[in-house]
Structures are given as C-alpha cells and as structure tokens.
C-alpha cells in the first residue's frame, strides 16, 4: 500500500480498493466539497462503532443523492487498509466521483471510496479523565437545514474556527450560530450538565450529528439521566455546572476550563462518562 | 500538457505550473473544501475581467488566511494553459495545499494552484439575447457571514439546488435563504427591474459577489440607472417587470420565463445589458 511521509500523513491509503496517493483532478470532492466523510477510532485492531458510522454515511448519501456503496464492501476495504494496525484513526471519504464543469452532478455518477489511516496524536492518546481546556470561537457555524447533521465535506466553518488559536494547551473551541445559539465544538458535540440533567443543542440548522453524541443520548436514557435536546446560548453555558465534549476519536472529553472559567470535574456524571468512553473507544 | 478525455473533461491542466491530471490525496481542498476558485471567460484568447477575478481571489484568500500567490505568476500560468485557445473557460482553483488530519491549517501551508481549461458548452455559446427560462429551487442557500461573498470551495448548496432539475430547457434556478430572502441563482447573480430602477440582493450572509455583478453595479451607475442592493423576497419577484442574471461565463442572461411566468424582454434596460455583455464576454 502507498505510504506518504510528511506532515501528519496517513499511514496507508486505499482508493476504490487500490493503493494510491493521488486522485483525479476531476473529482467533485475537490471542486465543490461534493461528498461525505467518517473518522473512525481503531482499537485493538477494530473500527469502533462501525455501524453508527455506516448509518450516518447512509443518511448523508441519501441527503446528497450519492449512491451508497455496499457496506460489506466498505467493511472489507476498512479491514484491508487497517490490517495489522491496532490503534489509530481510520478516515473514509465518499466523494460523488468525477464530473465535468458545473454544479450539476453527472448522471450516472460513480462515487469514489477513499480510505486513509493515521496514528493517534499524543493528545488523543493521553488520559481522557484529566479533562481539557476549551475556548470560545468567533467564526460562526454555517447554517443550512438541508446540510445540517450529516458529515459532508463543506467544512470551512470548522477550519476557520480551528485556525483561531494555536495554543496547544487549548484542545477545542465552541462554535455558535451568528444569532448566538451554541451549536458544537469545531470537531466535537457539546453536553451541558446542571447537576441532574444533560442538555445538548439540536443539529437541525448546522453542526454534525456525532456518533458519540447519539451514543450519549442512548446511554443517558439507559442510566435514567434526562437529556434535553434544546437551543442553548452563552447564558446556559455560564449557568452550567459542568460540560463535556464528544467525538469518535477521543470518545469523551470532560471540560476542565472554558474561556478562563474552571470547572470541578468531580461534579460530572462519571458513571455515564466511563461507559461512554468504553463504548466509543474500545472494540467491545 | 495533460489531456483527460471524458465527461466535460478539461482540455488542459496545470498544477503548480506543471502539466498533470492527478492531485495528492493530502490536499485540503479534497478533505474540507479548503480553498477558493475562479471561473473565467476566455474571448479572443484573453481571460475577460482578469483583474476583477484577481481582486475577488485576493479578498477570499485574506478571508480564509491562505497566502495569495503573486498575481503575475497566476497571469503567466493562465497564459500558458490557455495558449492557442481563443474561446472557452478557464478555471482556477487555489487550495490551501496539503495537510495532515484535522481542521487546523498546517503552518506553514503551501497553497496549490490548479488551472483547468474547458470548451464553452452549446448553451453558453448561443445568442444571449434570446433570454433563458428559470425555475425556483427548494434547497436553501448556506448562511455564514464570514464565508459570504467569496468564491470558496464549499458549494454543496449550489450542487443540491442544481440537482433539482434536469430539463435542459431550464437554464438556471433561483435560491433563497431558509427565511425566504432571495440570494442568487445556483451559478448567477440576480437583478430585478421595475421599469426605472434595478434591485439585487446583498451577499453578506450567503451567495457570491460575482464579478459581473460588480460590473453591473458600476455600469448602471455610469448610465445613470439606480441600483438598490437590498433584501428581496418572492413578492418582490412577483412584482418585478423583468429580471436578468449575470455570471462570468455567459455575461448576462435576460429572463424570458420564471416559474411559468413569461416576461416581455423588451421591457429590460437593453442599453445596460448590451454594454454588460460586451464588458463581460469580450476581451476589450
């Protein structure tokens, strides 16, 4: 398989089932961000929460009108590209495929599957229980009800928000709509804790319906912890007793500090957080 | 130079000054739509309105924090890739360049220049004075004040809107914010005419500040025609006496029909439209 050295380069790549490190300049992912992606944690050699990632990909493909490849084929290619790698990150890009000039999707389009594997970074590999420091971002979330929730390739809002800081001690930044409603972190979903109840923003206008967000809603229900999916603003953050962030690579990040305010991590519902981490970042 | 046959394939390609038809899978344009583009009309061997395209690219690069290449270098590469081609389309993609995993832009980033040339389609080459039929689109425009106006690569809203129809007799579709304000066509800007005055929507929340939109505002002022840049809704369209669309490839498209309603093209300010077409689609 192709190996590309350099800045945070992938260890291995499969393009439509074949090793490679270059892509046709006709690909619509390049021209318009016309496609979807999934970032999947590898643990003990297995892709964690595979089915949730496939479910979201299916939903996204339906929304964009991209033919969804057979998930058995995707699973086989995922197994091939991760062969022998126990820990790390598996990224899948599903592009609409090649096209001519202009926005109109080609008919028929031949979707392209791109798998890349990466090692975990040191930040991703460290003890999650220590919590992270978080900041507020200025860049607003892009709003489009038709694109909200799915993990499409139009991610300039997150790119610009993430470019707002380079202090390595700050792990994440919170993003809002222009009108002030909290949506998510640049690469995480957000849960507020008031001591008895969880709250998280809907992802119906912007943001991504994270796989671990879905897992959190389910596990909380199973543990008898209420979780409200509701619009939240800066005032709600100020009133929160604690908060945590979720994504598929780190699982769960308790927030130790937000915009200078420190939180007592002991206040968080650790029974939920522990199960969440187990479910998100271990092969079980 | 590389030549790629197939569906609406480009005639020639230059990647960072060299012929090629493949791009590194590490390019951030592919992963996040992290870049900008320009689509430029070629007439009598020259790129029309070159300076306007460069001005918008500079603005976009500033907004995204991408190092803008020397415009003299871009002009030289444009001349090389279009050598011997009198009519057609020149597309320039400026990507942030290669990067590792994650939204954070690499420091330093090495932006990538991609030039592609295409022939004009038969629709683009025909007599513009006949006007075009236009429809209403359901897909809303993506809203983000930080990204509005510039020609970035996050174009899924236009892709989905353009996928709403495949009737070749319909040339364009109008797009709105979720809240009902008119923004633009999928690939054009829109001007309404009430018999004395022009009106066009601002591009401060979504949409692109088209080069021919800018030209229209200037030419109208020079001809003593008032043009209001103002929020417009469906009712404003219903009341309009006529409308026309602008973009850099077709120049200007008078609207003959919108969503079944027919317009008398003779009502339009043809002195403006003629000069607009001349300025947009001829080398002078």
UniProtKB/TrEMBL annotation, chains A, B:
<keyword id="KW-0456">Lyase</keyword>
<dbReference type="InterPro" id="IPR043132">
    <property type="entry name" value="BCAT-like_C"/>
</dbReference>
<dbReference type="InterPro" id="IPR001544">
    <property type="entry name" value="Aminotrans_IV"/>
</dbReference>
<dbReference type="GO" id="GO:0005829">
    <property type="term" value="C:cytosol"/>
</dbReference>
<dbReference type="GO" id="GO:0046656">
    <property type="term" value="P:folic acid biosynthetic process"/>
</dbReference>
<dbReference type="GO" id="GO:0008153">
    <property type="term" value="P:4-aminobenzoate biosynthetic process"/>
</dbReference>
<dbReference type="Pfam" id="PF01063">
    <property type="entry name" value="Aminotran_4"/>
</dbReference>
<dbReference type="InterPro" id="IPR050571">
    <property type="entry name" value="Class-IV_PLP-Dep_Aminotrnsfr"/>
</dbReference>
<dbReference type="InterPro" id="IPR043131">
    <property type="entry name" value="BCAT-like_N"/>
</dbReference>
<dbReference type="GO" id="GO:0030170">
    <property type="term" value="F:pyridoxal phosphate binding"/>
</dbReference>
<comment type="similarity">
    <text>Belongs to the class-IV pyridoxal-phosphate-dependent aminotransferase family.</text>
</comment>
<protein>
    <recommendedName>
        <fullName>Aminodeoxychorismate lyase</fullName>
        <ecNumber>4.1.3.38</ecNumber>
    </recommendedName>
</protein>
<comment type="subunit">
    <text>Homodimer.</text>
</comment>
<dbReference type="GO" id="GO:0008696">
    <property type="term" value="F:4-amino-4-deoxychorismate lyase activity"/>
</dbReference>
<keyword id="KW-0289">Folate biosynthesis</keyword>
<dbReference type="InterPro" id="IPR017824">
    <property type="entry name" value="Aminodeoxychorismate_lyase_IV"/>
</dbReference>
<keyword id="KW-0663">Pyridoxal phosphate</keyword>
<dbReference type="InterPro" id="IPR036038">
    <property type="entry name" value="Aminotransferase-like"/>
</dbReference>
<comment type="pathway">
    <text>Cofactor biosynthesis; tetrahydrofolate biosynthesis; 4-aminobenzoate from chorismate: step 2/2.</text>
</comment>
